[in-house]
Amino acid sequence: MENESYLPPIESVEELSCIIQALVFASTEVVTIKKLKEVIGDFLDQTQVSNALRHANEQLVKIKSPFEIVEVAGGYRFRTKNAYYPYIRKLFPDNNPRRLSFAALETLAIIAYKQPITKAGIEAVRGVSCDGPLHSLLDKKFISLGQRAETVGNPYTYITTAEFLKYFGINRIPDDLPRLTEFSDILNSEFLIPQYPMQKQAEPTPSQETTEQLEIPLEDGF
Fold this sequence. Notes:
By secondary structure, this protein is α+β, with helices and mostly antiparallel strands.
């Protein structure tokens, strides 16, 4: 019986491209360079992966494929091109985009650009309280608690999460963040279009520290 752990040598960029495409397609999570090396071999480096994926996307363009491979949240995944979103949206009518209030989106933008940042720091930028928006963003797992700040009272800071990166299709912060003018368009739209398949998740249970810090119930409109 052939040894299942044996992998034949990879002899071309095209062959490596096909292997990586197969792995990315089969995975339910983003596939990192670390995972690719674990599966294919330690000889793999970032340049080889980038070249293989460039080749893959060039071939997908040639055949006018509705798919592309993108780098997001520190790894790679397939996604459908934006032109096909209206059709895909009708296929999943029950998966509504995550709607956030203007205040929550504005708060998220501040955290994304200024992280790590304290609640007081966010409110200094916005000029108003941000208890409700913070609670909403924590609940949706777009942000999490960071380290305590070295200021009076040692308050927690807030940072964005891997969920935020995947949802917005972002790979690196701050390099891949949208320009402020683009974020304004997102704010004006008042809803988010997911960049990856929505999965039903259990409602998170806020930790005692989180509840004490926010000291508010969920409010309508956030």
